[in-house]
């Protein structure tokens, strides 16, 4: 297993410590593994959607409409976590 060292502002470090104390995570390593796992899942989901979009017919939506929908979806997903 690889070891990674990162630097964080005190406020972020305190936030992580609070998350660990509140129970969802047992260690900083577990917290960061979960963040990376979620990021991987998010990236794969976006990749699948892009492939699906490439393979589908042309859209009647404008590029601006598509971007606004994507932003709204990303905010919704972000609000869930």
Give a description of the structure.
- With 81 residues, the protein is mainly α.
- Helices cover 72% and strands 0% of the residues.
- It is elongated, with a radius of gyration of 18 Å.
Layout of secondary structure:
Blueprint: H1 10-21, H2 28-55, H3 63-80
Keywords for this entry:
81 residues, mainly alpha, 3 helices, 72% helix, 0% strand, elongated
Alpha carbon gyration radius: 18 Å
The coarse silhouette is: elongated
The proportion of residues forming helix, as a percent range, comes to over 70%
The total strand number stands at 0
SSE-based structural type: mainly alpha
Mean pLDDT, all residues: 90
Brief rundown of the structure:
With 81 residues, the chain is an all-alpha fold. It has three helices and no strands.
């Amino acid at each position: 297993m690889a070891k990674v060292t990162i630097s964080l502002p005190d406020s972020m470090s305190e936030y992580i410590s609070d998350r660990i104390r509140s129970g969802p995570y047992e260690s900083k390593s577990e917290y960061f593994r979960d963040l990376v796992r979620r990021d991987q899942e998010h990236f794969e989901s976006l990749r699948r959607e892009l492939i699906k979009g490439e393979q589908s017919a042309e859209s009647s939506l404008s590029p601006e409409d598509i971007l606004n929908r994507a932003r709204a979806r990303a905010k919704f997903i972000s609000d869930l976590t």
